[in-house]
Design goal:
By secondary structure, the protein is an alpha+beta fold. The protein is 16% helix and 45% strand. A hairpin with a 2-residue loop joins β9 and β10. It is globular, with a radius of gyration of 15 Å.
């Protein structure tokens, strides 16, 4: 596909509004790590499964190939700066946000709309991404207005 067609495809896919999440885990030294992702989706209620995708070019790609647990932090409308922080190459992300440990020490960001603490059930190759399926071990739901991404921009529900 030409670069122009790739850009057109990206723009077309950007017409699907998504929520914004920060996926967190611990590295092999027990240090918290996280990245912004908008590929989160529910998969099943029985058993409780969710999915998200990590790009092969991501700085955390290798970590998510070996880690056994992750958390999904669904951002609320006031957390655009957190989305941008976890999308950046900044190494001290967790020093700039308020968070607390969850199951197995998973980093949970404070004041999020929802959180899902998961154990990895499957990983599937999906082109330039890996599709990660997680079994939900615990969750919280504060039902706040979500942070939305549409057409390459942050949006809020009106």
């Amino acid at each position: 596909m030409t670069d122009e067609k790739v850009r057109e495809l990206r723009n077309a896919l950007g017409n699907f509004a998504t929520g914004i999440t920060v996926i967190t885990t611990l590295d092999q030294q027990g240090e918290p790590k996280g990245m912004t992702a908008n590929s989160f989706s529910s998969v099943s209620l029985e058993p409780p499964l969710v999915s998200w995708c990590v790009g092969k070019e991501s700085r955390l790609f290798d970590l998510f190939q070996v880690t056994s647990h992750f958390a999904v932090n669904i951002l609320q409308s006031g957390q655009q700066s957190i989305s941008q922080l976890f999308a950046s190459p900044n190494d001290n992300k967790f020093g700039q946000v308020s968070w607390h440990p969850g199951i197995n020490g998973l980093p949970l960001l404070d004041d999020c709309s929802c959180q899902f603490q998961c154990e990895i059930e499957h990983r599937y190759s999906g082109g330039d991404h890996t599709i990660v399926i997680g079994r939900v071990l615990d969750f919280s739901n504060k039902s706040m207005s979500p942070l939305i991404f549409h057409g390459g921009q942050y949006q809020e529900l009106k």
